[in-house]
Structure formats: structure tokens, C-alpha cells
Design a protein that fits this description.
The chain is mainly alpha-helical. It has 21 helices and no strands. InterPro entries: PG_synth_SpoVB, Poly_Biosynth_Transport, Polysacc_synth, Spore_V_B.
Length: 517
Amino acid sequence: MSKFLKGTFILLIAGFFTRILGFINRIVIARSIGEEGVGLYMMAFPTFILVVTITQLGLPVAISKNIAEAEARGDHAEIKKILVVSLATTLTLSIIFTPALILLAPILSTTLFTDPRTYYPLVAIAPVVPVIAVSSVLRGYFQGRQNMRPAANSQILEQLVRITLIAVMTKAFLPYGIEYAAAAAMVASVIGELVSLLYLMTAFKLKKRFRLRKDFFQFVQKGKQTFKDLMDISLPTMGSRMIGSVAWFFEPIVVAHSLALAGVAAIEATKQYGALTGYALPLLMLPSFVTFSLATSLVPAISEANTQNNRKLIEYRLQQALRFAFLTGGLAVIVLYVLADPLMQLMYGSAKGSYFIRLMAPFFLFYYYQGPLQAVLQALNLARAAMINSLIGAIVKTAVIFLLASQPTFGITGAALGIIVGFVLVTVLHFATVLKKIAFSFYIRDYLKAFLVMGASGWLGYWLFENILLNEHLAFRVLTSTVGMSVSYVVLLLLFGLIKKDELKRIPWIRRFWAFR
């Protein structure tokens, strides 16, 4: 089993468990503090992501790429230099931006978000910035060595700690007000990230090949060229993420002001934004743990192939990643589209947000492609082009949200349509950029087969839910329908040859079954 497939598989398993735990987290939050509380949480969260993006400076991708190349050369001194320079940079930036976030919180909450209660979640999340700065460097180091296990384990550990604390803390602070409960949810996230960092530091100490603290400042002084090499990759990468983070930062601001122009009160706008971003979007982004795993593994794998000038291997890896993203995303789309109402009712005790799922689900196939395509661009030294594509998408998305959400006929639906337009446009631009760099075959017949499989499995799931076990509990009906869709989907994929037996044999437990047989 290749390092690429093994690393992807480890991240997939970890990502799956992380997402399941994350959903339990969101369910607890939603049931504890409701739409309004979730709206406050989600309004503050983009600001936190923007600060983290600036602090990280795009270094995780650059670290992964440069360490993969240094590892291939056996240059351990350069690996240490990369780590030292990266840690010095991110820690310096976190020392600047953590106090800045706390000091600016009153202005952000009252002026930009139009809801002063967002102040408390903003202040509560600020201490996590330096923690994430250090942990992201360590994750980049392990990913560069194509050792995905520490990063995967740290994600699961973080969610376990967070989910343990979230219910207790939100319940304890809810009597003081919804804003305090939302802030408590943020504090739980801070503690989870801190535990994750402690695990990564322990894993690094056990597996390291050098003493990091020895001659730390001397390595910083000698690391000018290393810093330049990192910046060549990290700055364009940060540019792409910065554009996305800035767009996400302005998104709740634009939505709040647009809905105000449409005649929606501030509290109602917070609820509607909570239903869209706190209820619907997390479900739609469920398969993104697959694309994240693929993207994380693709950067070092394609960097290595590009260093060897192996164009065939680059295309093969990309074909693998895109097909996997499409097939896993396709199953998620049909399950969410068919079962939107009952899923929302089961998870959040309310069907609010199901309309957004049905509206957006078909278009999210483009979103699932975006991560692997961006990873390929970064690995091929085309991070600048990816940044420009992201900028175009962000500008168009924000413009569409403002134009549509400010109209009473659209309202919050205009925000959903703007989000769709943004990620579809970025994905198309990324794909066009990749085609300029490498040869790529597009198998139209396979995609037509995949859409046929999606339609057939979706119809079966709908029929099962509407006609079988009508007197049973809603959860049992949803489970039966989901299992029916999943089994029929996989069987049809095998019958149509969209999943090949030799690929299945590469999965560890299936490979062992074949060997035993």
C-alpha cells in the first residue's frame, strides 16, 4: 500500500470519527442554546478563523511540501530549520493578533455584526490562537513525512475533549444568558485544541530525529533562505485562505445588513443565519472530511512526483482523488436531499434549515472537488493562481449575497444562492488552471453512470422511507432508508465498474480478507 493511499486512509477514518463527534457537538449546542445561540456562535466564528489564517501565514502547506522534499533528499538539518523558522514566525504573529482580537471585540460586535452579544464568544475564543499556531506547524511536519497518524489522532482527541465539556459548560452558563452559553461553547473548543496540542508535542518528542530546542535561535538566524523558500509557497497559499477567511468574515456582516435592508429584525436575522450556517451547512459539508484527507495527502505525494517530473503519476493521483471525492460526495448528496426534513428533525429537534439542504445539496458536488484541486495547484507551485481564483469567487459570492439577500423576495435564500455561486465558480476556475499544467482525461461515460446510480439509489431511499415501516420510530425509518441507499449505491457502483476490485483490495481489512480466503 503506497504512502499516499495509506495516509489518505488514516485521515479518512479519523475524519469520519471527527465529523461524527463534531455533529454530536453541534446537536448538543443546538438543543442547548437554539437557533439564536447558534447564530451568535457562527457570527463570531469567522472572525476567529480570519485571525488564525493570518497567524498560520499559510505555513502548514509549505511545511508539508518542503519537508517532503527535504525528506526525499535525507536532509535532516533542513527539516529542523523548517520547523524552527515556522515556529518562530507563527508564535510571533500569535503574540500580536491574540491581544488585537480581544481589544477589537467591542468594535466588531457592536458596529459590524449589529448584535453586541457576539462580544462574549469573540473574547472567549481568542486564547486558542497561539495554541493552533503551534499545532498547525507540528501537523505540517508529520504530513510532510507522510505520517498522518499523529494528526489524525489529535483531531479525534480534540473532539472527544470538546464534546465532553460542551454539554456541561453550555448548561452551566445558559442561566446567565444565551451569549454566555455561546461563549462557553467557544471555551470548550479552546480546551480541546490545547489537549490536541499536548498530544502532538508528545508524539513529536517520541518520534523526533533531532533536539528542537538545541541552538533554536541560531537556526532562526541562519534560516533566511529557508524562510524565503517557505514564503514562496505559504504567502500565495495564505492569500487563497485569507481571501476565503475575509469573505467568510464579511459574510455574516453582509447577510445581517442585507437582511436589515430587506426588513428583517436583528434577532430574526441571527436566527436565520444560524439555521443556514449552523444547521444546514454542517450537514452538507459532512463529506468534506474525505476531500480534506485527500487534499492533505495529495500535497506531499504530488510534490514528490513533481520533483521527479513524473506527469503520469500526477494525473493518476488526481484522477484517484477526484473520483473518490465524487463517489463519496454523491452518496452524501442523495442521502441529504432525500432525508433533509427527518434528519434535521432528529438532529436538532426542528426541520428549520431543511429547505437550504435541498436547495444546495446538488451543487455541493463542486465543493467536494475544490479541496483536491487546490492541493494539486499548491503542490505544482501554482498557489498564486489558486489565490486569484479564490479572490474572484469571494468577490462574486459577496456581491450575489448582497444583491439577493437585500431583496424581500429572496432574504436568507439569497445568502444560500450566493454561497453556491461562490464555490462553484472557484472549483471551475481551479479545474481550468490544472488543465493548463497537466494532461487530464475526462471520462464522461463514468460520470453519466455515476449520476444514474445516484438517481436509482435516491429513488429507492425515498420509497423505503415513504412506504416501509410507517408506524416505526422516525430514527428507525431514517436508518433503514439510509442503509438501503448506501447498500444499493455501493452495489451499483461495483456493477457499473466505477469501483474496481483491485482498489478495494488495497484497503487493509479487505486485503487481509482476500489473503485469508
